[in-house]
């Protein structure tokens, strides 16, 4: 497998050309921390499509506001608008992008139907997309003592090991299966389970795979800055609350500081509880 230095330029997806079928603007309503939204945004970036993005904050209940409910009555993100089409399901959005933007300059992330790779990519895509990662995220943050080892890393490692020298999940090309796995691994790292799942030499093949993912320009653009619960989720939400509700600069500063302090305290407590859980597990293993 090819290895690269940390400062190497990530893989770059070529920009898509527009034609009469695709010249209409893409508009995506999403939330930065939403697992489903991240998959859609990564597909858009990998395909090099131009898209106008609007962040809809779930903690601020912006998805329940009337203007958004008119787009999607279920109040869920992401939502894609293209011409007269409004697509409200992440899988349907990704399929729509693959079926609509078929210009030869636009990278294909799904093999042609009938090829030997098509059922393989579809299999891993369906398998990974069936996991309730948003619910798993909330559970791990609020109740880290109940977190269990995910079967994803072991399963993915088996697949990657079988591929041998091939860099991606289903061969030499980065596919929708890799989109699902890449965002899943990133989510596990985001909630602090990377070392437990594959780090420190535990699963070197999977660790090497994730390092290759990190070097892709599209991944860096979409998820490169989403790496810490406090910095990536708590603080931005706190400042948006402050900006939205505090009428004065002084009040904004106080409110932002207060909310950030609460968020940091909750984050530290969660990490402490998670560390205690790991210590207790190790203690039981030593006893056994």
UniProtKB/TrEMBL annotation:
Keyword annotations from UniProtKB, A to Z: Coiled coil, Membrane, Transmembrane, Transmembrane helix
Xref: Pfam families: GST_C_2 (PF13410), GST_N_3 (PF13417)
Top-level division of the source organism's lineage: Eukaryota
Domain GST N-terminal per the UniProt entry, residue ranges: 24-105
GO BP annotation list: mitochondrial fission; mitochondrial fusion; protein targeting to mitochondrion
Keyword Coiled coil in record: yes
Transmembrane segments: 249-270
Matching InterPro entries: Glutathione-S-Trfase_C-like (IPR010987), Glutathione-S-Trfase_C_sf (IPR036282), Glutathione_S-Trfase (IPR040079), Glutathione_S-Trfase_N (IPR004045), Thioredoxin-like_sf (IPR036249)
GO cellular component term of the entry, any: mitochondrial outer membrane
Limits of the GST C-terminal domain: 87-250
PANTHER family listed in its UniProt record: GANGLIOSIDE-INDUCED DIFFERENTIATION-ASSOCIATED PROTEIN 1 (PTHR44188:SF3), GDAP1, ISOFORM A (PTHR44188)
Family statement drawn from the similarity comment of this UniProt entry: Belongs to the GST superfamily.
Name this protein carries in UniProt: Ganglioside-induced differentiation-associated protein 1 isoform X5
Organism: Python bivittatus (Burmese python)
